[in-house]
Sequence to fold (256 residues):
Amino acid sequence: MSMAQTTHASELPEFLAREDGERIAFRRRPGRAPGVVFLGGFMSDMTGTKAQALDRFCAERGQAFLRFDYFGHGASSGDFKDGTVGRWKADALATLDALTEGPQVLVGSSLGGWIMLLAALARPERVKSLVGIAAAPDATEDLMWAELSEEARATILREGYVRLPSQYSPEGYIFTRALIEEGRNHLVMHSPIAITCPVRLLQGMADPDVPWRTSLALAERLAGADVEVTLVKDGDHRLSRDQDLALLVRTIEALL
Fold:
């Protein structure tokens, strides 16, 4: 759902140790509050175009900025096949708790938009506002399992996973039975979502992966009144063109 990126050797990450011996790779820029935290997408990492653009933006403003790789992603430890939404939510909360201070603006891309919502529900006092980029709440159920062929579903149930071609990764994407089944513990779109902070949702209408109506449905379910959806008619899933990045920066700047 989000393009996988390669790590730049010149940017060596730091690591946050977890209780189970795994390590979360992160890059942190000190600065003023409120800080900005970027949550990447499925099989993506913290060296992507949007994360780099936000790093430059925060550097210019002197704003604190944190980006990290979930378990099994990028420079973090762990096998991607063992990853679940609950694990990645726990990674987000661990980094938020250990590596940031005060209120934060969470910026979630694709599946990261779902993790962003889960983090805000778990730490409402730490979240100043949310920015979703093609946010994909309930993605494992509505955008993965629901869209898989009967053959792919049978393979997952029989083998425990299936690897399918993806335009974002030459290796294809892996969908595991654990990912799908554990994801059902974190679904948010079937009832009101108790988030009252300001929320901005940026969504391309030419997105082949996340229907643009998902953002409208999410806006409806959020409890707060300060919710705005921006539709980019020719925007794709990544929203990484220069004009898309400029929109993202303007959106965050207004919230800061």
Notes: Residues 14-138+193-255 form a domain with the Rossmann fold fold (CATH 3.40.50.1820). The first helix runs from residue 49 to 61.
